Amino acid sequence: MKQIKVCLDAGHYAKVNRSPANKTYYESEAMWKLHLLLKAELEAFGISVITTRPKQDQDLSLWNRGQKAKGCNLFLSLHSNAVANSVNENVDYPVALCYSEDDKIGTDEVSRELGGKLAKVVEATMGTAQKGRIFTKKIDYDRNGNGFLDDEWYGVLHSAKQVGVVGILMEHSFHTQTKATNWLLKDDNLKKLAKAEAATIAEYYGVKTQSENKTLIMGNTVATAGQMATYCLKRNANPKLVDCSIYELAQMFLDEGAKEGVRGDIAFAQACLETGNFAFGGDVDYEQNNFSGLGATGNGVRGNEFDTPLLGVRAQIQHLKAYASTDKLNQECVDIRFKYVKRGTALYVEWLGIPDNPNGTGWAAGNSYGVKILNILSGILSTAAIEVPPVLDWLKEAVNWAKSKKIIVGNENGDLMLDKPLTRGEFCIMLYRYYNLK
Ligand SMILES: [Zn+2]
After folding, report:
1. C-alpha of residue 392 to centroid of ligand 1, in Å
2. Which residues face 74 on adjacent strands?
3. pLDDT recorded at residue 438
4. Structural domain count, the chain
5. CATH classification of the domain holding 184
């Protein structure tokens, strides 16, 4: 899906346009709050948002504000209206103002259609007595002979139009009317407006809600260790691992994931992508126990190294949690790069790639990184698992010793075949390995 980008403009700066109906209301302050709330609501839809003013008290010309919309799908300037700046209880209709080249209605279909919807939404949310209206406004930009008339309030729309962006100026009823002013003074009401306007904009551009089309990184694993290992073995019969089988490694992903609330199957799919199904062969060597390229920043940089596979898995799970959540870790941090992550900036697998992340950050620089992981995950989930029987508790100490000394190694699936009979030949091999232990 195409990334939608919106430029939000808080109508005025500092303390400007005080209400005659309620002296505590300033249009500039209310619209600053509203534009930040709307930004958060749009971002929750995965819509990318920029704002025109870096600070509330910063003055910027109309022209400069409109120009900032370059590259956006929509420029939206937020205001409350006034009638001659004296109290007027008879006028309370919301307005959507759209730029027009020739002052004729219907010049810009996009702004008119979306503007009309937004005016209706404001009318319904604020409960105004009068219906929302839409106007088009021709901006005479060479009236003063120097290319642009900067004292024309609607000049932001002309400026946005000049960089090819649809512009709408919203008047959220009138701050010269007492009821509307008091309504706009409540933060909860501004939040209602932000939610309603964001939903309208998202729907207009065909953006679905997050839960409809994105995969959370936090949560319960769906795949089994058997499915994960079998998926990998079908693509690489000899995964390179330090003193563990692919089955044991898959189980570590599930156990470590569960300890931090991260989906272990997603982490394993990521490891399959990063290591080429544990063939390695890139900048990271299999002996580093680094399954996700942590610290391997390209051009031969080897990246982080972990003493055991378990620690490598733990670090990867922790690094995913850094992106996917703002909760603290449940285990001691072994991921030395944890502190570099801006917490909670990639809640979804789809957002792990920087170009796909509306927060402009992520795990990897390449396009569609998250989609590649999800393709592997769906491959894992459709794999019929060859399950390996677990090592029984009373055998564990001896089996682990024999494995660590490479006296038993198991078959290519990592199955130690502990319940299978032993031939005299295999017995000789085991004796020989023991005799030659250093
Ligand atoms: Zn205004």
Report:
1. 74
2. 6, 166
3. 78
4. 3
5. 3.40.630.40
Residue 252 corresponds to which tokens in the numbers above? Answer: 């570590």
Q: The domain spanning residue 240 has which CATH number?
A: 1.10.530.10
Ligand 1 center to 3 CA (angstroms): 29
Residues 55 and 121 in one domain: yes
Distance 19 CA to ligand 1 centre (A): 12
Instruction: In whole angstroms, give the CA distance from residue 167 to residue 341.
Output: 35
The rounded Å distance from CA 209 to ligand 1 centre is 31
Q: How far is the CA of 46 from the centre of ligand 1 (A)?
A: 28
The CA 195 to ligand 1 mean position distance, Å, reads 21
Residue from 330, 369, 329, 372 nearest 346 by CA? 369
**Structure-token pair, residue 285:** 């060597």
289: left (phi over 0), alpha (psi -120 to 50) or beta: left
The three-state secondary structure class of 218 is strand
CA of 90 to the centre of ligand 1 (A): 19
Sheet strands side by side (includes 74-81): 48-51, 5-10, 74-81, 166-174, 95-100, 133-138
Domain range spanning residue 344?
Answer: 225-381
Claim to verify: residue 255 and residue 134 sit in the same structural domain: no
Tell me how far the alpha carbon of residue 12 lies from the centroid of ligand 1, in angstroms: 6
How far is the centre of ligand 1, averaged over its atoms, from the C-alpha of 82 (Å)?
A: 8
Whether 245 and 289 have beta carbons less than 8 Å apart is answered as no
Residue ranges in the chain modelled with pLDDT below 50: 105-106, 142-147, 150-151
CA of 166 from ligand 1 middle (Å) equals 19
pLDDT (0 to 100) of residue 243? 84
**Residue range 205-226, pLDDT digits in tens:** 988 765 557 899 999 999 999 9
Residue 153 CA to ligand 1 center (angstroms) comes to 8
> In this structure, is residue 217 part of a structural domain?
no
